Amino acid sequence: MLKIQHLSKHYGTAKGKSTALNSISFSLGEGRSLAIVGESGAGKSTLAKCILGVVPPSSGHVWFDGRKVDTMTPSEQKQFWQEAQMIWQDPGLALSPHRRIWQMIAEPLENYKRLNRQEIHRQVDRLLSQVGLDPALGQCYRHQLSGGQCQRVCIARALAPSPRLLVCDEPVSALDLPMQLKIMDLIDNLRQHLGIAVILITHDIGLARRYCSQVAIMHKGCIIETGPSDTILHHSTHPYTKRLINAIPRLPWL
C-alpha cells in the first residue's frame, strides 16, 4: 500500500546544507504495523511529514496505492489525505482551544463525506464511543479534558474520514506510563479491528516491540537496521541499535 523510495530531505542553513533524511526506503502493507525508532533529531518527524505530503522531499518518492504523492492532482491529493491521517505528538496543541470537541471531529466528516447535520452528530457520537469516551464530552472544550482524553479525541478525529493509514508521531510521549499503554492498546485494537496500517514514530523501542511487527531504526537521517521487532530487540547487528537498547533502564511491558 505504501512505498518509500530513496527519500531524502535537505534544508538550507546559514552553515550550508543540512540533511534531515538520506535515501530512506521501505514499504508497508495493508493493515500492517511499522515502528520508526530513533532519538531526537534522527529525522523521524520529517519522515512523517514527507510521507503525508506536508513537506515536499528533496528527492525520492512516496507511493500510495501505486500513485506518487508528490505528483498527485488536487482531487487525488484530497483522496489521499482522506485515506492517510496523522496523530500528532501533543494532543493539547493539536486541538483548538476555541472549538467544542464535537466540532473538531465533525470537520473531517464535513470535508470528506456528504452527510446531513443529523448524521454528522450521530457519527461524532459513534467515534467518541469507539475511542472509549462518553459522547457527552463532545460539548466540552479542550481545557476541560485530561491529556489522555484529548489524545483519544485526536484519534477519533483521525478516524472520522475512514483512513487506511495512520501515521502516529510520538502519540503517547506527553502521557504517563499507564495512559501510554491504554492509548497504544486503543490504537492497536483499532488497527486489528478496522484493518488500518499504522506507522508508529517513537524513541521508545519497548513500545515498538510491543505494538509493531516490524521495526526500522533511524540514525542521523538514515535507516540503519530494519526487521521483525523481536529480531531487532534481541538480535540486533548494528552498534547504534545495541546502544539504543542498552540505554533503556527498564522495559516494563516485556
In words, what does this structure look like?
The structure is a single chain. 39% of the residues lie in helices and 26% in strands. With 254 residues, the chain is of the alpha/beta class. It has a domain at 2-95 and 165-246: P-loop containing nucleotide triphosphate hydrolases (Rossmann fold), CATH 3.40.50. The protein has a six-stranded mixed β-sheet, sandwiched between helices. Helix 4 crosses helix 5 and helix 6 (147-159) runs parallel beside helix 7 (177-194). The mean pLDDT is 91.
What's the gist of this structure?
The chain has 254 residues and is of the alpha/beta class. The protein has helices at residues 44-51, 74-83, 91-94, 101-112, 117-130, 147-159, 177-194, 205-211, 229-234, 239-246; strands at 2-13, 16-28, 33-37, 59-64, 67-68, 84-87, 165-169, 197-202, 214-219, 222-228.
